[in-house]
Specification:
The protein has ten helices and 16 strands. A hairpin with a 2-residue loop joins strand 4 and strand 5. The longest helix is centred in the N-terminal third of the chain and has 32 residues.
Length: 347
């Protein structure tokens, strides 16, 4: 009996070591050969390339081309002299307040007119309410928090806002990896590469979260399983997502706060959610982390998740990533209530 048990232990030990060695070999092979980034189909967030250019600042990668314009699906996209889809920026009047929104395609106004964007609607609501406030929108499609930090540092501070509001969405916590240029006839196309958001197909626990953070092999397993599930069932929705750029993004959120504190500019944030699929919102834990971090660094914020997803109407969305004109209108009303106390406090 003793010999049998000893042999059993040896066999189990050999099996465990073999599995570990196999895992290690696969891990090394995947690290050497596989990159967790994807090439978006079509032109991704750069639909008309004549309104974009490569940025001189390598941390931004690309930017909007000043004084350029395009017409997409009947909507005019006019870029001002400073490289943003907004009105011509004016010299600030005496005693006038200024609110500046930094963001991505939501602030840019994806597939809606400039007048329908939440920040232009907010400006009208404020002025109609007797507040002399200049509201500026600096949104560039595809930008994330790391790029937005450099945009604030390089451009936004020159406009001396009283309040700077960071517009946040869940995929701000991906990392922009690189950008490729290629020619389509006479036209230059910019194609950004982003990291994957990886779904937890294997249920999230402390152990699987550890593996997701440190193992390329485990990430790839989840990624391939999610593709298989989507292939078989188009309605597959993971309970939670792992974002490769999360830690770096939170670091830059803190850097934005410190930068604005040094400049005595009030920092605030607005969180735009993605549309919930079925009864699952895969970014719920990310929202909680954003809340905790903003509370920790004492940044006032408003999260639009409840208004857009709990009591939601389908007409608030163009598709699951971007609010419609009605969604922007709802956001402007909520932001009015949120920002008026901050404005009055800054007087």
């Amino acid at each position: 009996m003793h010999q049998r048990f000893k042999k059993f232990l040896i066999n189990i030990s050999v099996l465990i070591l073999s599995l570990f060695a196999t895992f290690l070999i696969l891990e090394l092979i995947i690290r050497a050969t596989y990159e967790f980034k994807f090439r978006p189909k079509g032109r991704a967030n750069l639909p008309i390339t004549k309104t974009y250019r490569l940025a001189g600042n390598k941390n931004l990668l690309y930017e909007l081309l000043p004084n350029s314009k395009a017409k997409i699906e009947g909507k005019d996209y006019i870029i001002n002299a400073f490289g943003f889809r907004d009105k011509k920026y004016r010299i600030r009047k005496a005693n006038q307040k200024r609110i500046l929104f930094i963001g991505d395609s939501v602030t840019y106004g994806w597939r809606i007119s400039l007048e329908e964007t939440y920040h232009k609607r907010l400006e009208k609501l404020l002025n109609d309410g007797g507040y002399d406030v200049d509201v500026m929108g600096m949104g560039i499609p595809g930008y994330n928090i790391v790029q937005e930090y450099h945009l604030i540092k390089e451009s936004a501070l020159d406009f001396h806002p009283d309040i700077l509001v960071l517009q946040i969405v869940p995929n701000d916590f991906e990392r922009t990896v690189s950008i490729q240029t290629f020619r389509e006839g006479k036209r230059l196309t910019l194609l950004p590469y982003h990291d994957f958001s990886i779904p937890f197909v294997i249920k999230k626990t402390k152990f699987t979260y550890f593996l997701m953070r440190h193992s390329h092999f485990f990430k790839l397993i989840n990624l391939k399983l999610s593709w298989l599930k989507n292939k078989k069932n188009q309605d597959f929705t993971p309970d939670e997502m792992f974002l490769l750029g999360e830690e770096k993004s939170f670091q830059h959120l803190v850097k934005i706060n410190k930068l604005l504190k040094r400049k005595s500019i009030q920092f605030a944030a607005v969180i735009f959610p993605f549309q919930k699929r079925k009864h699952v919102y895969a970014y719920a834990s990310l929202h909680e982390k954003i809340h905790k971090k903003l509370e920790e660094i004492k940044v006032p914020f408003v999260d639009l998740y409840e208004e857009f997803n709990v009591n939601r109407k389908d007409d608030l969305w163009i598709e699951r990533l971007h609010p419609s004109a009605k969604g922007h209108e709802l956001a402007s009303v909520i932001l009015l209530k949120f920002l008026v106390p901050l404005l009055e406090r800054s007087e």
